[in-house]
Amino acid sequence: MVLQYQHHHHLRGGNDMYFINDKHQQNFHWLLMQYPIANSNAEYQTGFYVVAHPEVFEYCSRNPVSDNHGPFDWFFETDDHSRLPVGLAHLVHAGLNLYNNHSAFALNVALSTWSQEQYHVFLQACELRRSVANCLVDIP
Known about the structure:
Blueprint: E1 7-10, E2 16-19, H1 22-34, H2 42-51, H3 54-59, H4 86-100, H5 107-111, H6 116-130, H7 132-135
Antiparallel strand pairs: 1-2
Helix pairs in contact: 1-2, 2-4, 2-6, 4-6
């Protein structure tokens, strides 16, 4: 299966990166500039990629690193995430799992809730997480 990328940016090594829209890409680049650790750390970069999803980014008030620890600080500030649509909630849990092995993620459940777009974000997050050397984004 070949992914049809709607919006993309080049990864090191010449591969394309999937974004759901321009806002996703803009949020991601802004986060990478604000938190340079993500330019050399696959866990942080993957976390910021998921959090940059426009709906998630708005949900966390465009301030995911509220405690200066990592891209999911906002998530642990409350136990109530009922305002997040179910598919996005599973995407956030997937991002948390890829970031720090957070155990609240169930792939078999998530797959049945994700839209095609959310599934593609998950696949891209996996690609980012797989390799520090080959998958990190070059910031223009």
